[in-house]
Design brief:
CATH architecture: 3-Layer(aba) Sandwich
Structural class: alpha/beta
Helix content: 25-40%
Strand order of the largest sheet: 3-4-5-6-7
Oligomer: single chain
Number of domains: 1
Radius of gyration: 18 Å
Shape: elongated
């Protein structure tokens, strides 16, 4: 499936092509990676997925704009979250639990990411010979209703290891 409504310019195209080439089957159904980091992209991608002969039963969106677009498309199509479609969003946002159903999200540690980036930058500025470093920081899964968690389950945070 091709999505021509979002094409990275220059830097990033190689990564997108590589990700699409690596898309692996999940069970007997293909896993599709969709790109388009705005509300309009989330709405269009979700609408296209709903048109498939065998549409998915779960969506993972990359940011709050895509999540709102996906919700818009699901609502327009009469698809109930989480009854007919589970939804998990990356990047928790303050109003995520105000949606109905409340949105399950992955919360990244933005302040910790910024603090570590500054520390690494200052270290490299002081000593350019210091090798580049990859850091992995834990995220939190904010379990709410949109993922289809067991009814009555308390909303809670789950910390993951890097």
């Amino acid at each position: 499936m091709t999505y021509d409504w979002w094409k990275p310019k220059g830097r990033g195209q190689k990564e997108v092509d590589s990700a699409l080439a690596r898309a692996a089957p999940v069970g007997s159904r293909p896993c599709r990676r969709l790109f388009g980091w705005i509300t309009k992209g989330g709405r269009r991608a979700t609408s296209e997925l709903l048109q498939l002969a065998d549409p998915p039963t779960a969506l993972f969106t990359g940011n709050s704009g895509m999540t709102i677009g996906a919700l818009s498309a699901l609502q327009a199509a009469g698809v109930k979250v989480p009854d007919n479609m589970a939804l998990v969003a990356f990047d928790d946002f303050p109003w995520a639990e105000l949606f109905s159903p409340a949105l399950t999200t992955i919360a990244r540690p933005s302040a910790a990411i910024g603090a570590r980036a500054v520390q690494l930058l200052v270290r490299r500025m002081n000593d350019p010979a210091v090798p580049a470093q990859t850091m992995r920081l834990p995220v939190e899964i904010m379990h709410r209703e949109s993922c289809g968690c067991t009814p009555g389950r308390d909303r809670h945070r789950e910390r993951t290891s890097p």
